[in-house]
Design brief:
alpha/beta; seven-stranded parallel sheet; two-stranded antiparallel ribbon; 11 helices; globular
Length: about 280
């Protein structure tokens, strides 16, 4: 049986979180077309047991954090909100790294204000900036943690060597990398998280349409009477005890379906078939 909770630092949350990115406008740009519907999805996600929300200042940009605050502030005591900084959006298609310390200091202050909190539960460096040493980018996060503005530090889009470097200057509790049934390129990072006792947040957990149309996934879906998405998420939960999937959606129906994956237990035969 899969454990139902996971620790992110000293914060215990349910193992199926919610990626809030999709409630923004198209291309994760601008406000949602239907704001009341977006707020409803956020509230419903918490009501269904997702008490770990993942967002970033680049989603919108800024829109996503504001929506979370509008929907759920004052926050329930057990709700953990993770945000990220270090990517900027000059236009909708662009996601540019900016790991300069002065930018990250401003980003942290901006997230505090938009989320309406005095301390961010988990603040993640969204991606390494090839133009800035990792240590310099993590410095403002460490400083903010010492000042009581950040509870825990996480990183995103890191390889193993970057993670090892980062851990020399910051107490990192989580890594968020792309990982799903069809893309396991971050397997070495997942294994490092298991060794180090860090939470691993797979972004894009359902992958592209190829994952959901995979013949093995479809076969298990038919046998278990579960949706392909539920099978893909249940596989992630069974893959590693440090896995904290954060599927996102702007649809209440898809949200309801995704959450049911937490109670889907795949057989040893199913897991062997998926590899």
């Amino acid at each position: 049986m899969n454990p139902t909770t996971i620790d992110v630092g000293d914060l215990r949350v349910n193992r199926l979180g919610f990626g809030a990115m999709r409630v923004c406008g198209p291309q994760i740009w601008g406000p949602p077309k239907d704001r009341p519907a977006a707020l409803k999805v956020l509230r419903r996600a918490y009501a269904l047991g997702c008490n770990f929300f993942d967002t970033a200042d680049s989603y919108g940009p800024y829109v996503d954090e504001e929506l979370i605050a509008e929907a759920l502030h004052p926050y329930p005591k057990d709700l953990v909100i993770a945000t990220k900084g270090g990517l900027v959006r000059p236009s909708a298609p662009r996601w540019d790294e900016n790991g300069r310390p002065e930018h990250l200091r401003q980003a942290i202050e901006g997230s505090l204000k938009r989320l309406r909190v005095e301390r961010i539960d988990l603040y993640q460096l969204h991606a390494p900036d090839p133009k800035v040493p990792l240590e310099d980018s993590l410095g403002p996060l460490v400083d903010a943690q010492k000042a009581g503005k950040i509870r825990h530090i996480g990183v995103s889009n890191f390889d193993v060597k970057q993670l090892e470097r980062g851990r020399k200057v910051a107490k990192i509790v989580s890594v968020q990398n792309r990982y799903n049934l069809g893309d396991r390129s971050s397997e070495p990072v997942l294994q490092a998280c298991e060794r180090m006792g860090l939470a691993f947040l797979p972004w894009y957990p359902l992958g592209s349409g190829n994952v959901l149309s995979n013949s093995r996934v479809k076969k298990i879906s038919e046998n278990t009477k579960a949706t392909p998405a539920q099978v893909a998420l249940a596989w992630l939960l069974a893959k590693s005890p440090v896995m904290l999937p954060i599927p996102g959606t702007a649809s209440t129906q898809h949200l309801e379906e995704n959450v049911k994956a937490a109670s889907l237990v795949l057989s040893a035969q199913d897991l062997a078939l998926l590899g």
